Amino acid sequence: MRLSNKIALPIAAIVGLLIAVAWMAGLFADKTPAGLKEQQQAFKGSIQNVSIELLNVTERAPGSIVAKENTLVASRLLAQLKTLTVRAGDKVEQGQILARLDDADLKAQVSQVKAEQDANTAQLQQAKKQLERSQALLEQGLVAINQVDEWRAKVDELNARQNALSQQLTAAEIALGFSQIQAPISGTVVERLVEPGSIVAPGTALLSLYNPAQLQVQAAVREQQAAHMQVGDKLKVYVPATSLTQYATISEIVPVADSSARTFLVKLDMGLMPSVVPGMYAQIEYQLEQRPALLIPSHLVKQYGQLDMVQVVDNGVLSRRYIRLGDAFGDKVEVISGLSKEDKLAIY
């Protein structure tokens, strides 16, 4: 009897444990069909029909602001830079003197040529007088003709030298003018590349300038959309850094596509925009072809965590339907999947 009690107690404990596990697993609960666990209910309120609409869809392409008119201001001489009067950000006018080079040697060269020109002019005047006297004496038979020819040759030689000196003087004055470096365009200084005291050679860049009134947007546009664009079309340009929007005109479509990105480079001319400078990020906006889309009012969509849900009325019965959404268009949102145009939505 004592042995049977020892066996019965463990068996009873095991059976009790198995019953508890089965109860926690829900074996004794009523079965619920898969899917939504909420009980469907009849709906007697207002409904919203789902319909297909044609959308005028716009697309944005990233781009950047560049200066259509920019230049490097360079030296044309080998000389020492004496002064540089502007710095980055300064506004300059076309023809304004920006820098001066050491011009002592150039001024000396101009003075030397002028002195030689004065001396040659005096010799030329004297030679012309001698030629006139020789011609008069020749008519009287007092000198030989070869003496007249010698003075005529001398006059011709001095005339030729006078022309050569005039050209040398012009070249020297032009070189002297190059010592004062002027702004080739009106604009803004981007960068100061050298400092006074430096020895600059011909072609050495001193400054970089750009014209803020001649800006351009360059953007890569998908080849399917670039095929519908033409030079002269106006597109909307948005600059996020300044929150400014402006229309720009297509001035060029590069006729070679980027084979890796399948895009075309489109250039648009734009007017002056306050606080917009080259290098800024910009977006161009253009309209795509109309396409059909299933749209529903945004307020009919409820969120459950990361899921979007609407209440669908089917044969007078209200049920929950999970959907996948696309872009919003005003007070409506596009439904990508989960609904069809025959469905009816409950308004609540």
From TrEMBL:
InterPro entries in alphabetical order: Beta-barrel_RND_2, MdtA-like_BSH, RND_pump_MFP
Keywords recorded for this protein, A-Z: Coiled coil
Coiled coil location: 110-175
Pfam family of the protein (one): Beta-barrel_RND_2
Tagged with keyword GTP-binding: no
Multidrug resistance protein MdtA-like barrel-sandwich hybrid domain mapped to chain residues: 73-205
Entry GO CC: efflux pump complex
Alphabetized GO MF terms: efflux transmembrane transporter activity
Entry keyword Coiled coil: yes
Domain (CusB-like beta-barrel) ranges: 217-287
Family: Belongs to the membrane fusion protein (MFP) (TC 8.A.1) family.
UniProt protein name: Efflux RND transporter periplasmic adaptor subunit
Organism of derivation: Pseudoalteromonas xiamenensis
